[in-house]
Amino acid sequence: AVERALSIIKPDAVAKNVIGKIYSRFESNGLKIVASRMMHLSRAEAEGFYAVHRERPFFKDLVDFMISGPVMVQVLEGEGAIAKNRELMGATDPKKAEKGTIRADFADSIDANAVHGSDAPETAAIEVAYFFPAMNVYSR
Ligand code: CMP
């Protein structure tokens, strides 16, 4: 099925100046960028986005990191976009990410792990709506 996934290029990868390289990987693997915006998240915005992790021990560090600099937020659309994007990202912990994945190539640690991607259709819908009103998603 054609799906939409929410993707975030995190502050570490924005600082490394690799937005274009990461976009190229999406595009050359059949994912279309149908919405995008650069943002510097407020603490409240980051906490709201990661609300499902609120009780996890890494929550405070995660939020601190996500507000440490600008991020690039996009919606990826394509056949099986959620799984495809997860495959391109690699494992959450870059030390465990397969060679050639975004995290293996651009990430430094489990916190500074270059990208976020939706993990299921239900969370993808919530995450896309969190950043983009329907009229700002340019589906083709
Ligand atoms: P992300 O896909 O953005 O979702 C939650 C983030 O929490 C995750 O990527 C990691 O960057 C971060 N994180 C830090 N520690 C952990 C952990 N032990 N397990 C999962 N995620 C973690």
TrEMBL record:
Keywords on record: ATP-binding, Cytoplasm, Kinase, Magnesium, Metal-binding, Nucleotide metabolism, Nucleotide-binding, Phosphoprotein, Transferase
Catalytic reaction annotation: a 2'-deoxyribonucleoside 5'-diphosphate + ATP = a 2'-deoxyribonucleoside 5'-triphosphate + ADP; a ribonucleoside 5'-diphosphate + ATP = a ribonucleoside 5'-triphosphate + ADP
Domain Nucleoside diphosphate kinase-like: 2-139
Enzyme class, first EC level, given as a word: transferase
GO CC annotation, single: cytoplasm
Subcellular localization(s) per the UniProt record: Cytoplasm
UniProt-annotated catalytic positions: 116 (pros-phosphohistidine intermediate)
GO MF assignments: ATP binding; metal ion binding; nucleoside diphosphate kinase activity
Cofactor dependence: Mg(2+)
SMART domains listed in its UniProt record: NDK
Annotated residues for binding of ATP: 10, 58, 86, 92, 103, 113
EC code(s) of this entry: 2.7.4.6
CDD domains: NDPk_I
GO terms classed as biological process: CTP biosynthetic process; GTP biosynthetic process; UTP biosynthetic process
Quaternary structure, from the entry: Homotetramer.
Family membership noted in the UniProt record: Belongs to the NDK family.
Job of this protein: Major role in the synthesis of nucleoside triphosphates other than ATP. The ATP gamma phosphate is transferred to the NDP beta phosphate via a ping-pong mechanism, using a phosphorylated active-site intermediate.
HAMAP family to which the protein is assigned, alphabetical: NDP_kinase (MF_00451)
PANTHER family on file: NUCLEOSIDE DIPHOSPHATE KINASE (PTHR46161), NUCLEOSIDE DIPHOSPHATE KINASE DDB_G0292928-RELATED (PTHR46161:SF3)
Identification of the protein by name: Nucleoside diphosphate kinase
Originating organism: Sulfurirhabdus autotrophica
